[in-house]
Here is the input.
Amino acid sequence: MIRVALVGAGFVGRNHFNQYQLLGDRARLVAICDADPARRAGDWTNIGGNLADATGRVQDLGDIRPYARWEDVVAAGDVDMLDITLPTFLHPDIATAALAAGKHVLCEKPMALTVEGCDRMLAAQKDSSALLMVAQCVRFWPEYVWLKQAHTENRYGKLKSLSLRRNAGTPSHSAGAWMLDPTKSGGALLDLHVHDADYALYLLGKPKSVCAQGHIRNGSPDRVHALWHYNTETCVYVEGCWDFPSGFSFNMGFTAVFEKAAAIWDMATGKPLCVMHNDGKTETPKVPEADGFFAEIEYFLSCIAAGTPPTTSTPQDSRDAIAIALAELESIRTGKPVPIR
Ligand SMILES: NC(=O)c1ccc[n+]([C@@H]2O[C@H](COP(=O)([O-])OP(=O)(O)OC[C@H]3O[C@@H](n4cnc5c(N)ncnc54)[C@H](O)[C@@H]3O)[C@@H](O)[C@H]2O)c1
Here is the structure.
């Protein structure tokens, strides 16, 4: 039984809390930390967000201990793992302290706001007996798991083009509006678009260069359109924005055109993943059932139980996704392609 402290009881913290309720005896929540006294006591009536469970509630936390300070969670003797769901600018300090204390760390994406922050986390993990994984839920999301498998197995021939999209209204749920401050969240580039930067990396590896356009607001783009160049014929386009009107339903999706078929999915349509074959037939493939949040947590727990570092989502890839997103920012600012090392 892995004893977990949930560090952050906001939108994603509440979501992760729900997942632990489904994990049976594989993990036990022993502590919950939030600077907000009501939230750490289970009053979640004012938590919003753009995915499932956006309604508030009062949660009976039973014998889960409340903490105001994450430093006290790191020092707690009966905690094996921290699940960090705090604002992004806090990730490196908490993750490095927890790893130094020998505690496993599952940290929400984006890993950090800078490559240096990511490198601090990687170094702390190297010096620790504990494991680190960044919660890149898209790698575990059923439709994206299916696409990764189809591509790896070469099921429909070579991938000719990949388009990844993530569109949203400006987030309004974050505590004290920290998400709207790019010095705390990295703006849409790191908070939202990094999901797809990480997924493109997962599917195709590092590009040779990136070329991007965007709209910069408050020093950070709230819209990114990026072309990733590889030394192959695959055309890769990644789009992310949170500048839609507030009534817009959050969407994530992809179009992948292979030699023999095209796969199309857009969450907001409510329609299932569709594969259109060149011969005119269409197919609705069966996708894995578990949602991405549950699957990522379950996977990391299984890594801890087996004592093996995560491979489905490595901290190095999470770091590289940040580096590539920041290269896109450079391209937006300079109007030139930026090589990726
Ligand atoms: N995987 C996803 O799809 C996804 C979606 C949204 C957010 N996120 C990420 O999850 C993290 C949290 O985002 P969120 O949307 O849950 O934010 P949120 O504002 O809803 O929740 C953050 C919580 O942290 C608490 N907090 C802030 N500073 C604190 C401190 N110093 N000590 C203790 N508690 C503190 C706040 O009171 C709040 O309850 C971010 O890194 C964000 O990028 C991931």
